[in-house]
Amino acid sequence: MRMTVMVLALAGAIGCDLVEEEEDGLRRVSTSQTSDAQGTVSFTFNVADDEDAFLLTAEVPGNGYAVVYELVDPDGETVVDAEKLWTQVTSRTGGVYPAGVVSVNWPIQASDGDLKAGRWTAVIRTTDAEYYYKPGVETAIDVLKKTDNAFADGGLDIRIFYAGGVDQDPAFVASTEAATEYWKEMYANIGLEADFTFQSWQNGALPPPGEGAEAEYEAIANASSLSTVNVVIVPSIDGYEGGGLYGIAGGIPGPLVPTGNSAVTVDALTNAGPDMVFNDAELQLYGETMAHEVGHFIGLFHPVETDYAYFDAVDDTPQCNNRNSCEADLGGNLMFPYPVCTFSSCVQQDDLSAGQGEIAQRYAGVD
Amino acid sequence: MWIIPLAITMATPAAAAEPSSPLSDAVWRQLSERHGATCEAVAPLGEPAAVRDALIEVATQATMPPWAPVNAAKCVAQLAATDDVALAAATGWLGDAELGGLALAVVQQLSALPADRALPLATAAAERAATDARFGLYARPVLVGSVHPEVAAIGAALPTGLPGVP
Ligand SMILES: [Zn+2]
Known about the structure:
Radius of gyration of chain A: 20 Å
Structural class of chain A: alpha+beta
Number of strands of chain B: 0
CATH topology of the largest domain in chain A: Collagenase (Catalytic Domain)
Distance between the termini of chain A: 17 Å
Bound molecules: zinc ion
Helix content of chain B: 55-70%
Order of helices and strands of chain B: HHHHHHHHH
Strand content of chain B: under 5%
Number of strands of chain A: 17
Largest sheet of chain A: 6 strands, antiparallel
Structural class of chain B: mainly alpha
Strand content of chain A: 25-35%
Shape of chain A: globular
CATH superfamily of the largest domain in chain A: Collagenase (Catalytic Domain)
Distance between the termini of chain B: 36 Å
Shape of chain B: globular
Oligomer: heterodimer
Strand order of the largest sheet of chain A: 1-2-3-11-5-9
Largest sheet of chain B: none
Number of helices of chain A: 7
């Protein structure tokens, strides 16, 4: 792993020194600060002229939560305002919703403009499990900055980890690799070249990212490079053997720095269907499931939620308000919240819009 | 156009084109969502026996999305705690060579069942594992981790890994 110390001692807002390093093509600023009496951590970091997007991640220990409460640009404009975003029916970033690990990528989409150089301020609020602001919480903060303004095309490194014995099952390994070929084609439609590597992972039973296996997910993230998105294939997602989860992302967007949320986890057995063997139609859905979850990880929301009342903030994914119209308008979109099926077949869900591509291309892990 | 670079032949259970009733349709739709489809969400959709029958229909007649029948089987297995029809269905899947996915779904629910209902299903799972090594690969760790010591002992007696795979 390449790591070069570039700039030392950029002054932090409350007296802490920030260290900037270069790692895997990303410039990384890291700090750890304790929230004040109001449960607030405020810190500043510098964005240079040649930097084009950043991914901010805040992590708090144990059963606490954090939110990215405000992000203020060098002109003093609040570009991410959690209180405002909480009231809207369109979702821009998951980082404003309380979780143990929260991330915001900026800019999110083309309408946010170019990344402004200068001093940025991020305000993180720490809360307890009931979402009351909580003081005195040690908060780890990382900012990963990329120098790549080619937002029409980019590459994304994806590492597939076979866990829980999946690596001993040639059928599942072959099916997973076949599904990645289809996944590549879907991402290529938005100018995103997915590059896959594969690795066995000895430990098996894993809950979703952020739900109790933090050390294991950190270890997985440490096994790949910083800019890599990790996808863990398990036989079944621990704690969800009773149903309900076939794939889940560690955030929208997800963190690249190693944390308990730095992965997408996919359940192989439920995707393989009644006979435990992937047929062509199941392989298609398996590819779509993995690409959908990594889509979340690189910042994409469902174009419409299953209540047909909440939406993404993408201009070219139309808003709709009932099942029929939403399935007609958006049923072929990769990020639709459910596959549109009959009892025995599903429509292909491989569309990604130009607006969704704008978001994916700005994710810090895309170079 | 995408071509799967893999030759796969499989026997698919005879699938019905559409759900047989509005309740079956509602159960199937509930279990088809990508995020958040649970047995708890299905239970209120109708009378218990009717929901059970709809779940069995989805498990055995629906093939897409693949997680819908698998999750329906999980819900049926949970019902086997008190429901003899559900228990018979779950037992049948454990013995059906074409339904390894449904059989594993049953195995995953054994800790949610009383020991006297779980034990015969675990025994049937062990019998299947003797001839279905892929099923055994995934069933063994689930059985070993059971809250029921008798079920865990059945799992511990099964071989580990797949024959011929290092
Ligand atoms: Zn989703």
